[in-house]
């Protein structure tokens, strides 16, 4: 038989109203009392009735996330940090994944049917056309802007364009005439942002834009295939790779072809996966602060949900360049 709020209140020695405040993340509860109630909730395995709570408060205390169901490091880490940020704010987490060829609107509609107070668009697959949605709840995008026929929306997240510019500028600052790029799949927002940032950095520096390597699928195998192509070109001295896994494949291809890294070719990745610091050579990469991105997105969305002023811009950077041994000055001979 399901545990009731009355039983939780009795076991914790508080009123039902206090239990309700804790469950709904409301203020005016001391830390000691909140911790005691949460401990009893865990011990008794109490599950609040979301439907009843929604009728009472006009809200579900649940946030939906639209993402691609994947084990890739970046998206999966971001999902974990989003869920933790929502839990800290007193909201539960609901996930809807987009599949190849499926419109993002299908995942959004599935979340709306479940009952959510707001939606985060994390890294859905799309066809590259402007995203238009009908949603009667606030929507925060971690990538591109969204045209909403109802509700309110905002773009909050790491600036992948700026991060790609920083990575490309680092290679140019080492004296490389230009920088080649191994792109990710262009039905991902992140891949398009990184491609755009690379192009902007080259244009700003007056550097020639070389042809793109074969578009990858984020895997080491794709990076290896593209790396084999670039290794055959003598004028390739610097490569910005759209993620670390593909950079690992490219490093393999360059080494196999007898092109030393960084003496012959400098390589930069993106994500700073745990293995990046332990490669040979250790990989220069763009590190994403997933916790900062998730906290900012959730804070902003909850402010929209609850009608509060938008939070101040964070001072902690969402991305930063981590320089290691895979990049170096261009050879002068």
Automatic annotation (TrEMBL):
Coiled coil location: none
InterPro entries, alphabetized: HTH_LacI, LacI/GalR-like_sensor, Lambda_DNA-bd_dom_sf, Peripla_BP_I
GO molecular function: DNA-binding transcription factor activity; transcription cis-regulatory region binding
Protein keywords: DNA-binding, Transcription, Transcription regulation
One Pfam short name: Peripla_BP_3
Keyword Transcription regulation attributed: yes
Domain HTH lacI-type intervals: 3-57
Region span, Disordered: 308-333
Name of the protein: LacI family DNA-binding transcriptional regulator
